[in-house]
TrEMBL record:
GO BP terms in the entry: endoplasmic reticulum to Golgi vesicle-mediated transport; endosomal transport
Organism: Gracilariopsis chorda
InterPro entries associated with the record: EGF_Rcpt_Signaling_Reg, FkbM_mtfrase, SAM-dependent_MTases_sf
CC per GO annotation: endoplasmic reticulum membrane; Golgi apparatus; late endosome membrane; plasma membrane
PANTHER family xref list: PROTEIN STAR
Lineage: Eukaryota, Rhodophyta, Florideophyceae, Rhodymeniophycidae, Gracilariales
Protein known as: Protein Star
Amino acid sequence: MLTSTAYKLRAWRRLRASCSPVTALLLAVLTLLIVLLAQSPPITIVRRVGVAASNSNELQPVSQPVVIAARGEEKAHDESVTKSLAHTRSDWEYGDASDVCQPLFEKLERQGYLCGLYEREGSCRISRDWKSYRMRFWMFSQFAQDAYLYVKHFNRLNRRGVYLDVASNDAIKISNTYFMDRCLGWRGLCVEANPKYYERIFRERSCQLVPTCASATDGEVVQFKLRGEIGGVVGDTYKYGNNSKGTLTEARCMSVQTMLDRSKTTHVDYMSLDVEGHEVEVLKGIDWERARIDVISVEANENFERLSAFLAEKGYVRHEVGVEGAKSTKGKGFLGLDAIFHREDVRFGYPDE
């Protein structure tokens, strides 16, 4: 009695005999491929983006979201944030960075010559590209903040920079610091309270993710509006109003100084701050005697005068975009919605001095 395998073999031979030589050859090749695939182990594709400093081959997990349901969970929150800050991702791989960054560098170099940056000191007139923000369509920031800061200042930095992105939001979209990650090889902290962005930040960025909100003091419990790009701490300063759309939840914040201390960071080259009206409270959480932050870009809103006065007290001056060489300063001085400040002892355009 023929077995099932024998029946199949006989049927296969009859099929081959009834076919033309070309068809028979194709069937033989197909048979060989089926046999090889059946014997091969399953293929697992792993994109290794970041690892811990111990050179472990395992990708470190992101801490659980720090959105709390009730008060009295300070210890759990503290341990969660500490765990996140412990992930030093110095071995992060840049992937196809050359394909992404090289065209950007070429455009930025042309923009530098248009701006007169390389011709003579202190005479850079802002070209039409800056004024119309056409560069935002091929850079990552909303209003080409990354391009402007690179061409005007950080292109002269002869070391690996450090950034602090408070309310980093999406890892790439309208990010002021993604270019620094991907193309300049900087390291930094990404502070973000909305859990929807955690996985993408960890997958696409080299920064240490701090999964919480920033405020003046540690452990401050606030009402936080989960509203995508315009979410933030709800209160008198919230830009979009307490009754605006979005999911309202409680979150326990941490001061920026604690974040810097736990990550052993004392010098920040660039701080991006966009917390929808909560900026002054965030800045109050910095010990300005211990932390050095060279350049700050911050969204200008209803609290801008108060913000400017606070930074002036801390020894910062404003870099007014588009004012140098302009016939009129009316409506100028901002980069999109952002204002740029730097320390008095920092000469803008010469970060290594």
